[in-house]
Design goal:
Blueprint lengths: L1 H9 L9 H6 L3 H24 L8 H18 L9 H13 L3 H16 L3 H29 L14 E5 H20 L5 E7 L12 E4 L1 H22 L10 E7 L3 E8 L15 H10 L6 H5 L5 H11 L3 E7 L3 E9 L19
Parallel strand pairs: 2-4
Antiparallel strand pairs: 1-3, 4-5, 5-7, 6-7
Helix pairs in contact: 1-3, 3-4, 3-7, 4-6, 5-7, 6-7, 6-10, 7-12, 8-9, 9-12
The structure holds 1,3-dihydro-2H-indol-2-one.
Length: 362
C-alpha cells in the first residue's frame, strides 16, 4: 500500500532534533507550522517502523493496535492542509491525536511484556526498544503541547512562561512542589509522611548567598515528573525502614546545585539502599508491568506509590530528552542517592531522539 511505502521511506530520513532556544524563537503558532509539517510525520513513521522491527509484533494485540493507531495518526497528519492562515483545524487534529495517545505508555509496555512472555525475548533488548519508542513519543508530545499552548496564546510577555517551556523555571520550587505532592500521597497511603529538606547551592558561593534560587530554561512539568518519581521511591522506602518516631532523624535531602552550564539535583535517603538482587531491574519496564497485570486498583494512592513500575524508566527518559542524565547509587545498609543532571543553557538543551537504525537481533 502507498502509505506503507511512504512510511518506510520517511522513517529513514533523519529526524531533526530542536533545541529549547529554537523552540522559544517560535513566538506564534504559525512560526511552528513548517517544522510540524515536515518533522512530525517523520517521527510517527519512525515509531511505526520501530514496531515493524519487532519479530512477531503482529501476533500481539497491543502492538498491532498501536501500529494501527500510529498509521491512522500518520495519515491524518500528512493529509492536513498546512497552507491556510488559520491553524484551527491543525490544532484540533493535534489535540485529538494527543488525547487518543494518553494510554500509549501502558499499552506499549503491556504489549512488549506480552512479547517477552510469549516469545521469550530478551528483556534487555525490549527495555532498550521501549526507551527509544517512548523517547520518540515524548518528543512529539512536547512539540504538540508547545504548539497548542502558543496557539492559545497562554504565554505572557518577557520572562513569563511561553508555552510549556518556562525560561525562568525555579528548580527548588518545582522540587518543593514535587515533595509536597509525594508526601501527601504517602500520608494517604500509609498515614505518615517522611521529613524532607530542599537546599540550594551555587558554584563559587558558600554561605547564605549560595541559597539564592536556581532559575533556568526548562519544561517544569518534566522536572516535576522526574522529582515525583524519585521522591515517591525515597519516601516510601524511608517509611518502610523507619519507626515513626525516628522519621525526623532521617529526612530525605534534596540538594539543588548549579553552575552556569548545568543543574545537578541530588536526592538522598537513609532507607538502607536498594537490595543488591534488584540491580538494573530498577530501570526495567517489565517488572512493573508484570506486577500490574495482577492488580485491580489503578489510580488509587496505593497504585500511584506502588513498587518499581514504569515510573523510574520514564523519569530517566524525561531527563534524557533534553540532554540530561539520571542515575541511582545504592549504599547498602545506609541509603540511596539519585543523581539528576540537566543542561542549563537553552542552546545546549537539544532533543535526544532515537534513529531507526534499530535492528532486531533475531
Ligand atoms: C530506595 C529505593 C529507591 C528507588 C529509587 C529512588 C530512591 C530509592 N530509595 O530505597
Amino acid at each position: 500500500e502507498l502509505v506503507a511505502a511512504e512510511v518506510s521511506f520517511l522513517a529513514t530520513v533523519p529526524v531533526k532534533p530542536v533545541s529549547m532556544r529554537q523552540v522559544m524563537s517560535w513566538c506564534n503558532a504559525g512560526d511552528m507550522v513548517p517544522f510540524i509539517q515536515t518533522e512530525i510525520p517523520k517521527r510517527f513513521a519512525l515509531r511505526i517502523r520501530l514496531i515493524e522491527t519487532l519479530d512477531g509484533w503482529q501476533d500481539i494485540p497491543e502492538l498491532a493496535k498501536l501500529h494501527r493507531r500510529l498509521t491512522r495518526w500518520y495519515r491524518e497528519l500528512v493529509l492536513l492542509n498546512y497552507s491556510t492562515q488559520d491553524c484551527g483545524h491543525l490544532i484540533k487534529t493535534l489535540k485529538s491525536i494527543r488525547d487518543e495517545g494518553r494510554d500509549v505508555i501502558g499499552v506499549s509496555a503491556s504489549g512488549i511484556y506480552q512479547l517477552h512472555k510469549s516469545k521469550q525475548r530478551d528483556t534487555k533488548f525490549l527495555d532498550r526498544w521501549l526507551d527509544g519508542f517512548l523517547l520518540s513519543r515524548i518528543g512529539t508530545n512536547a512539540l504538540f503541547d508547545q504548539f497548542v499552548a502558543i496557539a492559545r496564546k497562554e504565554d505572557g510577555g518577557l520572562g513569563r512562561p511561553s508555552g510549556i517551556i518556562d525560561p525562568r523555571c525555579n528548580a527548588s520550587k518545582v522540587c518543593e512542589h514535587a515533595a509536597q505532592l509525594s508526601a501527601y500521597l504517602c500520608y494517604q497511603r500509609f498515614g505518615h509522611e517522611p521529613k524532607y529538606i530542599v537546599e540550594d547551592f551555587k558554584a563559587g558561593l558558600t554561605g547564605p548567598q549560595a541559597e539564592s534560587p536556581c532559575h533556568f530554561t526548562y519544561i517544569p512539568s518534566y522536572l516535576r515528573y522526574i522529582m515525583c518519581e524519585l521522591l515517591k521511591n525515597s519516601f516510601r522506602a524511608t517509611l518502610m525502614t523507619s519507626a515513626v518516631e525516628d522519621l525526623s532523624k532521617r529526612p530525605v535531602r534534596i540538594r539543588v546545585c548549579r553552575d552556569e552550564h548545568r543543574v545537578a539535583i541530588l536526592v538522598s535517603d537513609e532507607a538502607g539502599g536498594i537490595p543488591f538482587e534488584v540491580g538494573d531491574r530498577i530501570w526495567s519496564y517489565m517488572y512493573g508491568t508484570a506486577a500490574k497485570q495482577g492488580s485491580e486498583s489503578p489510580n488509587s494512592a496505593e497504585d500511584l506509590l506502588s513498587g518499581y513500575g514504569v515510573g523510574l524508566p520514564c523519569a530517566r527518559l524525561y531527563a534524557r530528552y533534553l540532554g540530561g542524565t539520571l542515575s541511582l547509587t545504592s549504599y547498602p545498609g545506609y541509603g540511596t542517592q539519585a543523581h539528576l543532571l540537566l543542561p542549563r543553557i537553552d542552546s545546549e538543551q537539544v532533543e535526544e531522539l532515537p534513529e531507526c537504525s534499530f535492528h532486531d537481533p533475531i
